[in-house]
Amino acid sequence: MTDSWATFGADLHLEPVGQGLRSGLMEALREAVRSGRLTPGTRLPSSRVLAADLGVARNTVADAYAELVAEGWLTARQGSGTRVARRSAPRRTDPAAAPSRPVRPGAGYNLKPGSPDLSAFPRTAWLKAARKALTAAPDEAFGYGDPHGRVELRTVLAEYLARARGVYADPERIVICSGFAHGLTLLGRVLRRRGVRDVAVESYGLDVHRDLLTDAGLRTPCLPLDERGSRTGEPAALRGAGAVLLTPAHQFPTGVPLHPDRRAAAVDWARSTGGLILEDDYDGEFRYDRQPVGALQGLDPERVVHLGTASKSLAPGLRLGWMVLPRSLVGEVVAAKGVSDWTSGSPDQLTLAEFIASGAYDRHVRSMRLRYRRRRDQLVAALAERAPGIEVSGIAAGLHAVLELPPGAERSVIQAAAFQGLALDGLARYRHPDAPAARDALVIGYGSPSESAWAGALDALCRVLP
Q1: Among 34, 174, 203, 245, whose Cα sits 20 to 30 Å from the Cα of 47?
Q2: Residue 227 phi, psi (nearest 5)
Q3: Could you count the other beta carbons within 10 Å of the beta carbon of residue 417?
Q4: Helix H or strand E encompassing 12
Q5: For residues 79 and 76, what is the distance between their CA atoms, to the nearest angstrom?
């Protein structure tokens, strides 16, 4: 992991993980000298100032300075402070003959949201499904295929989504895509061709989704958000929009479900204006304290596009997603996909179809639901014991939690965590540019670490909290 610190006029790239804070700081300073970002004679800040800037103990910086002085990288003279040593230029070597410096593999912990536990991918069950699916596959399955997606997968998805998420679907309404981003890109093209200019988005969400819509020529006005979810009942919030992008089951990243009144208000808006609701059901299968909130699409299948993927339930590397579309939209989306854009390979689609049909998908989801619930409970318990002043929210579902911080603490906590090899995201990372700054918080993805790394990641988190 690498982080950048703007310090004494130079960006100091720190890679402390796996080698200790002092060693990480030393290597960052060496690299800054090698690259010329710290020029000979540059005066470094005092150990006290740099320690405060980086959020580490003063002795850590003092020891690093002393060792770099001994190695000849720095000089230290009373009254002159610590400076970059004036060294002769290194002898030039033939780049082809120079041995490449080994790249140290990434270490540390990652608690950023957005990924499941990849170590839990059901390899054996997936391989079994792949063997069975490929053995039974017709020859034409290995051709260019249908841009709608394999009918085998669309058929089992229609049954599964109706049973598990309350989605009204039949195979003809489903188009397979290579994940949510691909589906949103296709929908952006279709909406723009229909004359839509604005697609409202929630005031907190992923910037990459806003960028995909913007790239399609659409504006993304900001929809206000509070403790009951997006404020879909306010006419002014959706005025001029031809569509709205929502995460109704578990708002990302705040974690609140859309209140029933606001779910109804969103559908009423779509019916009265002819608008569309784009429902991102990114982790709707993972609810812990009661039955999952049903998909919004069930309220009006002709006004809601339901988008789902296997990225959270299985793995994002599969690149498998789906759209359940209003009938009037199917032909336009398939046309936008184009005769040369199939993206998701037929063998993987057939494997997922068999994986679902055999019951292996349900078993895997149940297993992961128990694992993630246990992690959520361990997170809450650890915070109660070691950081009792931190309030936790958004934990009824999904793979992430929101940790409230004292005003002004978000940036410093993230920096301190990065220096110790812990990757975190703050709530501000997901705020729409037009949304007012609200509160300081962390968005903790407790799904990402492997089972072996989880305890260490949780301990590292507790150490950096105020």
Answers
A1: 34
A2: -70, -10
A3: 24
A4: strand 10-14
A5: 9
- Mean pLDDT of all residues in 382-392: 95
Mean pLDDT of 435-457: 92
pLDDT of residue 54: 76
As given in the structure block, the two tokens for residue 7 are: 């310090």
Q: Are 158 and 174 in contact (CB under 8 A)?
A: yes
Residue 14: enclosing H or E segment and its boundaries? strand 10-14
pLDDT over 60 (residue 11): no
How many residues does this entry show for the chain? 466
Q: How far apart are CA 20 and CA 335, in angstroms?
A: 54
The predicted model scores a pTM of 0.76
- 14-37 core/surface letters (b: 16 or more CB in 10 A; e: else): bbbbeeebbebbbbbbeebbeeee
Q: Could you tell me which of 439, 447, 430 has the C-alpha nearest to residue 407?
A: 439
Confidence class for position 36, pLDDT limits 50, 70, 90 = confident
Task: Determine the pLDDT at residue 426.
Answer: 96
Question: Of 193, 194, 195, 187, whose CA–CA distance to 212 is shortest?
Answer: 187
Q: Give the phi and the psi of residue 441 in degrees, each rounded to 5.
A: -165, 165
Sign of the C-alpha dihedral computed for residues 343, 157, 266 and 271 taken in this order: positive
Rounded Cα–Cα distance for residues 153 and 177 (Å): 12
Beta bridge pairs of residue 3: 14
Question: 390 and 405 in contact (C-beta within 8 Å)?
Answer: yes
The encoded tokens of residue 465 equal 């909290």
Task: Considering only residues 108 and 458, tell me which one the structure prediction assigns the higher pLDDT.
Answer: 458
pLDDT for 50: 83
- Domain annotation for the chain: domains and CATH numbers: 21-84 (1.10.10.10), 109-113+363-464 (3.90.1150.10), 123-360 (3.40.640.10)
Provide the residue type at 11 as one letter. D
**Cα distance between residue 67 and residue 136, in whole Å:** 65
Judge contact between 202 and 246, C-beta under 8 A.
Answer: yes
Q: What is the DSSP letter of 204?
A: B
Residue 19 has pLDDT above 50, yes or no: no
Mean of the pLDDT values across residues 440-448? Answer: 95
Tens digit of pLDDT for each residue in 195-246? Answer: 999 999 999 999 999 999 999 999 999 999 999 999 998 878 898 999 999 9
Phi, psi of 394 (to 5 degrees): 70, 25
Q: What percent of the chain has pLDDT above 90?
A: 67
Nearest to 112 by CA among 460, 457, 424, 427: 424
SS3 270: helix
Beta bridge partners of residue 391, listed in sequence order: none
* Average pLDDT of the chain to the nearest whole number: 87
